[in-house]
Design a protein that fits this description.
Rossmann fold, OB fold (Dihydrolipoamide Acetyltransferase, E2P), 2 domains, alpha+beta, 9 helices, six-stranded antiparallel beta sheet, elongated
Length: about 375
């Protein structure tokens, strides 16, 4: 077991990078603490596999260091790093039995046969493979093969960490949930540092205690599923997490009639704390993006002059709740209605509670409650800049 530290890490696949976009991993520093269950979540092409391969040693980073328990491992080969990696597609030896496949990583490092046997039985039991041990891997279904692949990652007690790269892609949807729970259970039992790569928010939040959201080669937020939902640190997190994602609209910091500055959407003032106004002024920001999750949009039953008057576009019934789409100054926005809430039509009134209306400048959250956690854009650097 180990903590994994990424220190000013960056990676490019091009020989002569000239701009930030040339980097699959833009300069980042990050720590995966020892024993944690983490997810690395992001869309296709954001750099997840590149990052995992750098940690496991399959890929040498262009810049920066990887440290296990504070010791630099850049120069160590993958087999010297004691990392188990489970890939998207099963890696099994077809001609070997399931037992021999599971035993392989242990026999490779000279573990005595009696220990091999007990460990293989233990892991096979957890993964419900006990009755398959004598079968040749060739005859197994894709699901079962991937379970064997996972088992090979889990047999060694001495690994520093286990990295899972979208391990459930080939698994039948009904089995996915079960295996995710199983992995969580295994984590609780063995207390190994686990990093689970996925583009699926549900997979990430059922497995991990903390999720790193990756976008364009950067980790834009590292937090609990709840933090990602309630306080997205970047507009991408707001958009990517949640179903549907956050609503966004643009507002301006400008003088009102009485000359005091306020955050304005057209002629409408957006309720904003003095601390936020002062912060925006200090940052020299005039245009901001406001974000509010559909769950927090308040839909009024009757007329309310303090709220925005909007037009209902359509209502989608999703069984236990409904999603209301409405036209807000030419753009479609969404609100989540609870099961017992009256379904509105025509002209309605909505408001955006200040507590849940997040302010973003250049896509990053401006957080006046917790300045220490606010991403400071000025501290970000890109190698190609
Ligand atoms: N061997 C390679 N040579 C050149 N470019 C690569 C190579 N591997 C990945 N890339 C590029 O690096 C970027 C990050 O890719 P990476 O595979 O790490 O993303 P990912 O988030 O794992 O995506 P996916 O979920 O589709 O696997 C992409 O733009 C990809 O095209």
């Amino acid at each position: 077991m180990a903590s994994i530290t990424l220190n000013a890490l960056a990676h490019t696949y091009t020989d002569n990078p000239t701009k930030p976009e040339d980097y699959a991993i833009r300069e980042m520093s990050h720590v995966w603490e020892q024993g944690g269950a983490f997810a690395l979540l992001g869309p296709s092409g954001c750099g997840k596999s590149t990052l995992l391969n750098i940690i496991s040693g399959l890929l040498e980073p262009s810049h920066g260091e990887v440290l296990f328990d504070g010791k630099r491992v850049n120069e160590l080969k993958p087999e010297e790093r004691n990392i188990a990696q489970v890939f998207q597609f099963p890696v099994v030896y077809d001609t070997m039995t399931v037992f021999d496949n599971l035993a392989f990583p242990l026999r490779n490092i000279g573990v005595p046969e009696y220990k091999v046997k007990s460990k293989v039985y233990e892991v096979a039991e957890i993964l419900e493979l006990s009755d398959q041990l004598k079968r040749k891997a060739k005859g197994l279904s894709a699901d079962q093969k991937q379970k064997v692949s996972m088992g090979r990652g889990l047999v060694r007690d001495d690994v520093s960490a286990i990295l899972f790269d979208e391990p459930l892609t080939v698994i039948d949807p009904q089995l996915k949930w079960k295996l995710r729970r199983k992995l969580k259970q295994i984590h609780e039992q063995f207390n190994i540092t686990m990093v689970y790569v996925t583009h699926d928010q549900l997979e990430a939040s059922t497995f991990a205690d903390k999720i790193a959201v990756m976008y364009n080669g950067k980790i834009v937020q590292f937090g609990t599923p709840r933090e990602l939902f309630e306080k997205p640190a970047h507009t991408f997190v707001g958009y990517f997490i949640g179903s549907p994602g956050m609503n966004f609209f643009e507002a301006e910091l400008k003088a009102k009639d009485d000359q005091k500055e306020a955050l304005m959407f057209g002629e409408h003032e957006i309720a904003t704390s003095d601390a936020m106004l002062a912060r925006l002024k200090a940052m020299g920001a005039s245009k901001v993006t406001l974000g509010i999750r559909p769950e927090f949009v308040h839909v009024w039953d009757g007329k309310n002059n303090d709220a925005f008057s909007v037009e209902v576009d359509y209502v989608e019934d999703l069984g236990t709740y409904k999603i209301l789409s409405f036209l807000f100054h030419g753009q479609i926005m969404k609100a989540r209605l609870s099961e017992d809430q009256k379904v509105p039509s025509g002209q309605i009134y909505v408001s955006f509670p200040e507590q849940w209306t997040k302010v973003y400048v250049d896509d990053y959250l401006v957080d006046v409650d917790d300045q220490a956690n606010t991403v400071d854009k000025n501290k970000e650097t890109d190698h190609a800049n």
